[in-house]
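Quiz preparation item.
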């Protein structure tokens, strides 16, 4: 499962990229609106940081306008993916753009039936939103599981991107269920790496190394520094 960051913040994206595990970025109008950099310089910079898909969202439910927006977004960079909200007009635009070879991420998917529509419209990615389903007492992971099962049975090539993730369990269960991509805020990325036993173990080994160093004879210079 590819790990993607759900952010338009350049510091967060650079930090996650430095870990060597970042395979993509998802943005949306809310995330873009929080940043001070103008839209085009911001999304161009994001595309240059990441070696992977960067989803950039359109803003309309009108097929013709979405197709025009899709053409312009696709020009921004080779790794730009056109993000289109689920709607009848959005599906029409997805079909037209996909037939032209432009990659489309159909977003705001909340049901398996919407995911079937996205695949049939030729989407490159479909994004079910788990956390927002959980927020209204619906089991987001159950919906993801249904989508992954249906896509496997039907042989759909559309990638399932597990979105709106709130915590590490969402990430782990998305991997178990067979999601192709998981996108998460930076704070969830950080939560994936941390464990109190890891931190305590590292502190203990560091102290023990410091105490042992005087008795260990010659050390490689970089080990001496530690
Ligand atoms: C995905 O592409 C969306 O931008 C995102 O995951 C939405 O998450 P939220 O429900 O935390 O806003």
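Solution:
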């Amino acid at each position: 499962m590819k790990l993607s960051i759900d952010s338009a913040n350049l510091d967060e994206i650079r930090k996650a990229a430095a870990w060597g595990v970042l395979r993509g970025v998802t943005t949306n109008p809310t995330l873009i609106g929080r940043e001070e950099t103008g839209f085009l310089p911001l999304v161009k910079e994001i595309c240059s940081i990441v070696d992977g898909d960067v989803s950039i969202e359109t803003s309309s439910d009108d097929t013709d306008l979405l197709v025009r927006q899709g053409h312009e977004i696709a020009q921004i960079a080779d790794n730009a993916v056109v993000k289109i909200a689920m709607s009848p007009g959005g599906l029409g635009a997805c079909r037209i753009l996909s037939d032209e070879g432009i990659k489309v991420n159909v977003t705001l998917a909340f049901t398996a039936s919407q995911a079937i529509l996205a695949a049939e419209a030729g989407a490159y990615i479909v994004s079910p939103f788990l956390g927002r389903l959980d927020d209204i007492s619906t089991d987001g992971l159950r919906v993801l599981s249904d989508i992954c099962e249906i896509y496997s049975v039907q042989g759909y090539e559309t990638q399932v991107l597990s979105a709106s993730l709130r915590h590490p369990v969402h990430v782990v269960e998305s991997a178990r269920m067979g999601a192709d991509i998981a996108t998460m805020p930076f704070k969830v990325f950080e939560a994936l790496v941390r464990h109190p036993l890891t931190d305590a173990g590292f502190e203990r080994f560091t102290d023990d190394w410091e105490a042992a160093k005087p008795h260990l004879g010659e050390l490689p210079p970089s080990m001496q520094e530690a």
